[in-house]
Amino acid sequence: MRDWTCPFCPLLCDDITTIVHDDGSLDAPDVDCPRLTHALTWFSGLSANQPSVDGQDTDLESALRRAAEILKSTSRPLFGGLATDVAGVRALYPLAAGCGAILDHLHGDAMAASTAALQDRGAFFTTLSEVRARADLLIVFDCQPSARYPRFYERVLGGTDHARDLIFVGCEVDPAADIVENTSTHSILKDADPYDILAIWSALTEGRAEASIRDDTGMANALATLAERVSAARYTAVVYEPAALPGPHAALLIEALNRIVKVVNRTTRAGALALGGDDGALSVNQAVTWLSGFPLRTRVSIPTHLAHEPPLDHDPMRYRTAPLLAAREIDALLWVASFQPEPLPQGLADNVPAIVLGHPAMKRMLGARGGSTVFIPVATPGVDSGGHLFRIDGSVVAPLTATRVTELPTVAVIAARLSDLSDARSQP
Amino acid sequence: MSLTRLRGGTLYDPANGVNGGRRDLYMRDGRLVDAEPGAAIDQDFDATGMIVMAGGIDLHSHIGGGKTNLSRLLLPEDHRGSGAGNSFGAGEESADGRYLRLPSCGVCTPGTLATGYRYAEMGYTAAFEPAMMPSNARHTHLEMGDTPIIDHGAYVMLGNDELFLQLLAERDSFERLRDYVGWTMHASKALGVKVVNPGGISAFKFNQRSLNVDEQHVHYGITPRDVLHALSRALTELRVPHPLHVHASNLGVPGNIDSTIATMDAADGLPIHLTHIQFHSYGVEGPRKFSSGARTIADAVNARPNVSIDVGQIIFGQTVTASGDTMMQFKNAPLGTPKKWIVGDIECDAGCGIVPFRYREQSYVNALQWIIGLEIFLLIDDPWRVSMTTDHPNGGPFTSYPHLIRLLMDKGFRDEQLAKLNPEAQVASALPELKREFSLYDIAIITRAGPARLLGLKDRGHLGAGAAADIAVYRDEADKERMFTSPAYVFKDGQLVARDGTLVATPTGGIHYVSPDFDHGIERTLRAYSAKNLVGNPVHAAISDDEICACCRGGSLLPVACLTAGT
Q1: Where are the beta strands (DSSP E) in A11-163?
Q2: Helices first, then strands: H and E counts in chain A
Q3: B166 or B564: which carries more pLDDT confidence?
């Protein structure tokens, strides 16, 4: 299959030729991408697709009935993981509303940092094709893009002949950047504290003189040179990875980066490019935002379920998966992992019932738990079914196509069935 | 197959010349049909003493896509403030006992669900997203697909994308440019084409900070006039019904009346629609060098039958401005409230700028903006060329429409509101002398019949046999704001969807789009351009019929016919 779009990372590379073997396993021999290679090991053949309840194989209807019972008897469920596509979240939303669920994602912490910075101050962003067509200077801040996004340089900068500089700030040069032609790379302040770097860079960009900054480490000098380079550039792209920034206050770094970019734009042109949104995080955040008005870490409920609480409550501190589990604040978990197996979150108490809509290989990971555990294997978007995902830069939605024929139901189909079954008033 | 009768209502149906006639309406299979003597009436609604119009059509409302969702993300306080806590009407359950209204909130940029519910509750049955970037088309359609009840469609943005500007700068072949416009509409499932600050969004990417109609783009050497001329000619040759939809140069700049009139003339007599013209009608008279240019602009529109407009009325209060015009949004960002804003350069297509604004009655500038919008409504003679908009959410949220209708229909109310405003602005206003009050017939033109005609929707916006049975039935009240807030009945495709502001059903809306003929040979040019400049694979660029169905949740595909020769 030519021009396949890979769903396993948010770059959504759409130039891949895959070979589908008779046993359903997939190969992509022409692509050098360790992340894809690893993901494809989970698709080494058509897995058994039988659901289970408490470790015992069962049929889909029985599994759905048990899952619906769990949802009907819960009062504070969490829908977590949420590694799915747009169709999945569209169908999960009414199900969540029907049972008063909290919505958070596998990569909720990184998403929440970006969201908080945006809500507080806004942003100045750019997208992949703008960087490809326009940027003569890329500043990579405190991350190694190829570690999570192996084809980043090839896809964004490869095959062009623009002269560009890549400056790595607060980190080593990413060795994978070597593949880009006509580009110079170097690193500055690789061991410096990222907060200090941004404070000084910000001050210099706002017009503070280098000499007025008390600094005996050479940072001010290095950053003054950087600021001059930015002023001389036609278009600077500032690249960062929310998930790679040191916590717990990554939002402050993201805010500072965007503030610097905004100031630069008073005189020349620049944009920030955040790399993130893996495993459907961007897609789910976008869709929940347009449906409800709020981003993830929101609890959604029709009024009959939680009579004295508002239908929507967005609270990025309170509705975090790990603390909710640690404090035993939830009484059921619906865990969605449709791209690859994702273990149940650490901290999930054994006696809390769990419904897992997951990659077929998750079945053997679940093991014995005290609480009820329903496992329903689901289709992987872009392999077993079509779908839509948001690309890493948030502006482009890629269409996904199935590469093989399986009988696995999509998350959307299962969520719609569960909505039907768990709606008390539709019962006889 | 059942027959529904709406009995005894007073009809305002300008497309068919009906001005207040009392008549029964019949609906079958989602359509209005002629009376069928002797046929059994399956459902009967009493509209005696009520006002009946076709469903409202909003031809310019930012209801979906990247900048709308970023606006939601930027302003959680807008959502917390209203709707999150109590978005439920009593008894809104379907026949099988399910809640019809899923949780969704927000005032200036509500969630898509709330947007669909509220439009329908007000008697609107269609709204059109005016600024869909080609690269963001799937996202836009996904959001519109999640906007329940109402039909939708979008105008695709061109004229700032690098390929268009390259082709224009090369000046080699108009036909290729025209085919590229046709291909883009086809690929993005668009109903029309919009140009925002022609060439200016691109120029900003090359660090140009202003661009007047006859000024050259710093990189391509072309002018906004060239862009407007080429696009309006392309749409005419492609026989697209909706004229080029133009957000003109110099948005918000005092003295922009000259460039607004130059923009009208750049179409060389071809059809052109100037959107949210209020923001482009500013003079430089008076001590503050900011004055109403409404009279000049209205005279220009009155004198040019090829020009249509929508107003972009501002409404006092908090809102958010979301626009593709990065050049002007960046410039205006320091004026915003609260102090947070987003600008982005997007995919060599265009960009987006999001700046929250609070329009204040005591601000001279804001008061005058409000005055200018109303003056334009009242000074343009032909209501068929004026559509009622607030440029939702940029001038104010669409939920203000009942208030705006009252301002247009009720001179006394208008004067009361004017008296609350900044005194200097009142003095600078011609409003007190404008005695015109819109009739129900006028309102039916600017909110349904006119927009339907401008968009080429032959079976919408009127109540003749064969039209879609999209109908709003209002209780006749002296307070027109109250009257237009919650109609007694709203029918969508013959189905009752709302009754006195309460939802009764939430069907999925359909999508209007055009499929112009063009030479597919243009795809070779696209592939070569894409390989050099874009990250995405061009084989995935076009949205197929199957895919648009999935994006729109299986809503009806409503292809709009291109014009035939001689029309």
Answers
A1: 19-20, 26-27, 52-53, 56-57, 77-83, 102-103, 122-125, 137-141
A2: 14, 19
A3: B166
Q: Which pair of structure tokens corresponds to residue A256?
A: 């500072």
Residue contact B205–A93, C-beta within 8 A: no
Residue B365 burial (CB < 10 Å; 0-12/13-18/19+)? middle
CB atoms within 10 A of CB A162: 15
pTM of the model: 0.97
First to last CA, chain A: 47
- Per-residue pLDDT reduced to its tens digit, A270-323: 999 999 999 999 999 999 999 999 999 999 998 765 667 789 999 999 999 999
B373: Cβ–Cβ under 8 A, 6 or more apart, which residues?
B278, B311, B312, B313, B314, B395
Helix spans in A122-160 (H)? 128-134, 145-148, 152-157
Domain B54-503 indexed as CATH 3.20.20.140: yes
Q: How far apart are CA A390 and CA A86, in angstroms?
A: 8
The residue written with tokens 């500089």 in the block is A165
Q: Is A422 on the interface with B (CB under 8 A)?
A: no
Residue extents of the structural domains in chain A: 50-107+279-426, 111-276
- CB nearest to B347's CB, from A292, A386, A395: A395
Range name among A60-69, B74-83, B272-281 with the lowest pLDDT average: B74-83
Residue type, B225: R
Task: Look over chain A and give the mean of its residue pLDDT values, rounded to a whole number.
Answer: 95
Of A68, A23, A158, nearest in space to A415 by CA: A68
Across A325-329, B268-272, B399-403, B563-567, least confident range: B563-567
User: What is the C-alpha to C-alpha distance for residues B429 and B371, in angstroms, rounded to an integer?
Assistant: 7
Percentage of residues of chain A with pLDDT beyond 70: 97
CATH number of the structural domain A111-276: 3.40.228.10
Q: Does A118 touch chain B (CB under 8 A)?
A: yes
Q: Does the beta-carbon distance from A294 to B66 stay under 8 Å? A: no
CB contact under 8 A, A94 and B102: yes
pLDDT digit string, tens, across residues A364-404: 888 778 889 999 999 999 999 999 999 999 999 999 999 99
In one letter, which amino acid is B218? V
In degrees, rounded to 5, the angle at the alpha carbon of residue A64 between the alpha carbons of residues A59 and A68 is 155
- List, as ranges, residues 170-209 from B with C-beta within 8 Å of A: 204-207
Q: At what angle do helices B137-145 and B66-74 cross, to 10 degrees?
A: 70
Task: Tell me the shortest Cα–Cα distance from A216 to chain B, in angstroms.
Answer: 35
Domain boundaries, chain B: 54-503
Distances (CA, A) of A150 to A147, B106, B399: 6, 39, 47
CATH of A50-107+279-426, one of 3.40.50.740, 3.40.630.30, 3.20.20.80, 3.20.10.10: 3.40.50.740
A34, exposed or middle or buried, with CB in 10 Å at 0-12, 13-18, 19+?
exposed
Radius of gyration of chain A (CA): 23
